Amino acid sequence: QQQVKQSPQSLIVQKGGISIINCAYENTAFDYFPWYQQFPGKGPALLIAIRPDVSEKKEGRFTISFNKSAKQFSLHIMDSQPGDSATYFCAASFTGGGNKLTFGTGTQLKVEL
Amino acid sequence: SAVISQKPSRDICQRGTSLTIQCQVDSQVTMMFWYRQQPGQSLTLIATANQGSEATYESGFVIDKFPISRPNLTFSTLTVSNMSPEDSSIYLCSARGGGTEAFFGQGTRLTVV
Fold first, then answer.
1. Can you tell me whether residue A47 is helix, strand or coil?
2. Do residues A85 and A28 make contact, with C-beta atoms less than 8 angstroms apart?
3. What would the DSSP string read from start to end of A70-91?
4. Which of A36, A52, A111, B88 lies 20 to 30 A from B67 at CA?
5. How would you label B17-33 residue by residue, b for 16+ Cβ within 10 Å and e otherwise?
6. What is the pLDDT of residues A57-97, one digit of tens each?
7. Distance between CA atoms of B14 and B28, rounded to whole angstroms?
8. By the 8 A CB rule, do B58 and B102 touch?
């Protein structure tokens, strides 16, 4: 019940295209859903996060869409750039669970010229 | 955002020895965590480092193998004890301030030979 399932495992997108990564969860107690970006040899960096009281959050080229009834959320990267090539992790946590993050399995994104 | 520094950034150790990883945060934080990440894999929570008390370990991780200290609100250490090649991994420190955002150090890449 603590799992967060992420897909796809890898993704290749052309420069300027839209990258879409999906996550699904089971635990309805989760109340915080961040996305992290990780470059090789670096720690994960917080990209954008959402709470279940809103269905969408946009920051620049990055948008989270959240579907509470389906228990799914997704990351959209608009106008994808080669510099976006990285591994992306979705995660979830809940206040009553000590705010511990449960991570998805990760998506390796490659943006080609 | 909090800046998290980890030392060492990488190390190669002999089996049977122990390594202590240090994590320093540039501001006081309420919560600190330690994660393990196999190369190309997701993050697995080892334990929550509690200030002034014993760490809280996740299933599959024990204090004898991964002793943790947190003497104050900005510093924590993780020791990997009696190492075997299976302990080769990336170890990440994470911190959370008063809000929900969690930040990560750059990680310590450990190779056990």
1. strand
2. no
3. TTEEEEEESS--GGG-EEEEEE
4. A36
5. eebebbbbbeeebebbb
6. 999 999 999 999 999 999 999 999 999 999 999 999 988 77
7. 35
8. no
- How many inter-chain contacts (A to B, CB under 8 Å) are there? 52
Question: How is residue B99 written in tokens?
Answer: 């809000």
Beta bridge mates, A23: A6, A73
- Give chain A positions within 8 Å (CB) of B106: 41-43
Tokens of A102: 């449960």
Give B-chain residues touching A93 at CB under 8 angstroms.
100
Residues A92/A101, Cβ–Cβ less than 8 Å: yes
Sort out which chain B residues have CB atoms less than 8 A from A96's CB and list them. Answer: none
Nearest Cα residue in chain B from A46 = B103
Phi first, then psi, for residue B13 (nearest 5°) are -125, 155
| Cβ neighbours of A15 (radius 10 Å) | 12
Residue appearing with tokens 């991964």:
B66
Closest chain A residue by Cα to residue B10: A41
Cα distance between residue B7 and residue B17, in whole Å = 17
A5 near B CB under 8 A: no
Q: How far apart are the first and last CA of chain B?
A: 36
**Rounded-to-integer distance, Cα B52 and Cα B55, Å:** 9
A37 phi/psi in degrees, rounded to 5 = -115, 130
pLDDT in tens, B67-85: 999 999 999 999 999 999 9
> Which tokens go with B35?
């994660």
- CB atoms near residue A9 (< 10 Å): 9
